[in-house]
């Protein structure tokens, strides 16, 4: 182990050591690793940056099946927002993830579905997956769904979600998966923005032993979704009380039996969209991030293989939902493009007990496990007794996703789950990047607990001074994390709003991709991610727009203004704290009585308002009723001050005399002290 030199800026790196991959990792490899050593990584990385055409062109031909070869590897730039890769090529994502493996290894498991109730679990082989995907695609095609159309999917984490996504892609259509925890209002907004022609959903969901009313939420949303003509409903629970709308709704099992088990895939252009995935925007309106077919698929396959050290014999268990990018890339497209089994888990880490994840690992001899730190914090709180019940010796690579993993959780993950014998890959990436930006390559990159480590091939990371916009060179430095050149799996646009795409990602620092995160680079060139620098909070790995939550709060008749900030939380990473100023009538009822029954009822109403408009995961941990919000002289709310107060750093506010209402700050500090944590 090599100790890092002292850092004056990157304090996280002080007293850290480079941790090599344990020898047991290599003993468990079914065959030689994909890279020889760290020097080999540096050689390939340098080539990927200096000669991206020569690097990615051959890899695209090796990893993907093409119906028509591409004529040029890349064009366009970050400056102009016109990136394109593998120009002129044609392919189909469904064929790449299903058909070619069904032909070569028909009986190999493709989707290992672990249901909330284990008795409902099943395994789909690649041959069975091809038949199910073709039949659902047949239904959609009979409804008139064709290349370029958009189809919404609102399903829990079941095998049907995987089948639905691949069926849409098979037709050259564009899927838009909506997380099955979103409210009817959020469904409506996303369906309407994408002008979806059809919706694929289920009657009810099962999660943590409880039943979730999936179809009911969809029915409420579809009252105001004129573009949706047809709805395919999978019978997850078979509740006979679930109503179907005649002429619009059709049950999955009844509709698919009318179609054969093979439907030819429709080739699409490399740059044709594969899917939309809505992410929180700083303006409050969700952005439909557009991912292309070829570049995204290649990024998913490359990072799955190299970052995790995946081989044909392996089984990948990504404990993430397809409603988010992690489920898209590392539960579906990455593993299936490589022809390996993927474990799809419907339930929660705590049901029927805290050993469920480890029971799944043992049952299927999973070699790779990928999860958010939120789940790890929950599991650590529950103790190690459940871990010790199961044989986890099949594991080789442990991954972390959604937020930086703290050194203490890293150590717990390493010692208690990996037994000190696995490689840990703390992966940094985004919905917009499509695949990993920065992550240690399993078996190659020495680890520093808490650091995302080194960038993946083709990702030319840098740090920018947020004031001057100038790139910061050298080591032991900090700034805004950016990327200097395009890469294959980057998002191409925001659906029907390229201006928003430019303004959000490419215009803040012209010529660079703006990640929205602050970071530091230590003496070894390792990156340490420090969190958002824009108005987004990260709760349990879910990026939530503060503006979207604020908009939901302001819809309450008693609220005049609202400001939302994120605070550190031991369980969820960050939690939402809402500051609200009330309209006169409401203010008269609670001002000076912030701990009264009236104030309690109002705070409860506001939390429920957010749950209803967005979803339970966005609900504020605390609502602080204040007399006024701090504003600049131009009227902008100073959330920086609210963040400081929420972090108990009110003594570090700096000069507030330039505010239009500096007197408001003392009242906010007092209100926070009285109300935080109060119901």
From TrEMBL:
One of its GO terms (biological process) is acetyl-CoA biosynthetic process from acetate. Residues 1-23 are annotated as: Disordered. The keyword Nucleotide-binding applies. Residues 41-97 form the Acetyl-coenzyme A synthetase N-terminal domain. SUPFAM superfamilies: Acetyl-CoA synthetase-like. It holds the Pfam family AMP-binding. InterPro entries: Ac_CoA_lig, ACAS_N, AMP-bd_C, AMP-bd_C_sf, AMP-binding_CS, AMP-dep_synth/lig_dom, ANL_N_sf. Signal peptide: none annotated. PANTHER family: ACETYL-COENZYME A SYNTHETASE, ACETYL-COENZYME A SYNTHETASE 2. NCBIfam families: Ac_CoA_lig_AcsA, PRK00174.1. This is Acetyl-coenzyme A synthetase. It comes from Suhomyces tanzawaensis NRRL Y-17324.
